[in-house]
Amino acid sequence: MSTQDDVARIKAETAALRMRHRQELARARREIIEDAAWERERRQTNERVRQALARRDAELRRQKLTALKAEVAALCSPAPAAPVAAPAAASRPRTEVVDLRAHTAPPAPHIESISSVVDDLTAIPGIDAATQRRLYLAGILTHRQLCHTPATLLQQLVGPGHPVEAWQADARSLIAGAAG
Question: Which residues, given as ranges, of the chain have pLDDT below 70?
């Protein structure tokens, strides 16, 4: 073999190595670009997931807050008064038209005393005037209502440390004494 053949063979091998090297560099560049694109897409997806979770958590907090506000409002508002049955048609008083210019006003009709509708809750040991006021504002006006109100609700109304179960037992005793 001649040196010219060796030189030609070395040039061909060098050209083939350069070509293979360029191809490997091009493939490496493509992989780097693809990896960068994949990483960018992964970050964007993670960010979208974080935002969706944050929105969901905020909505859950809003729902819980709304539910708690409704519960507090229900606990703080007085209970609706029991509906009063309309008197029978025969017992309805007759309506009179009175000319106020000619006559004095008729006497006021008899109104039952409030004590027939509301019990004195301070008769129960441990209930003072302030506690009675809180119970009245919550719609608990009678011993019977005090007995039928759940102890946990009473505890929330008057605060911790009050013997609400004992109050309920005393109220039952008062009701039994009044009935007997």
Answer: 1, 77-116, 180
Cα Rg for the chain, rounded, in angstroms? 44
What pLDDT score does 108 carry?
41
Helix axes 151-158, 164-179, angle to 10 degrees: 110
Q: How far apart are CA 167 and CA 54, in angstroms?
A: 47
Of 54, 81, 180, 97, nearest in space to 139 by CA: 81
The reported pLDDT for the residue numbered 124 is 93
What is the pTM for the complete model shown?
0.38
Give pLDDT, residue 109.
42
DSSP one-letter code for 126? T
Q: 10 Å Cβ neighbour count for 164? A: 21
Which of 133, 114, 132 minimizes the C-alpha distance to 122? 132
Give how far Cα 67 sits from Cα of 27, 60, 72, 154, Å: 59, 11, 9, 20
Two tokens, residue 1: 């073999």
Assigned token pair, 49 = 């997931």
CA distances 44 to 28, 37, 55, 105, 167, Å, are 24, 11, 16, 82, 62
The number of residues in the chain equals 180
Please report the pLDDT score of residue 103 as a whole number: 42
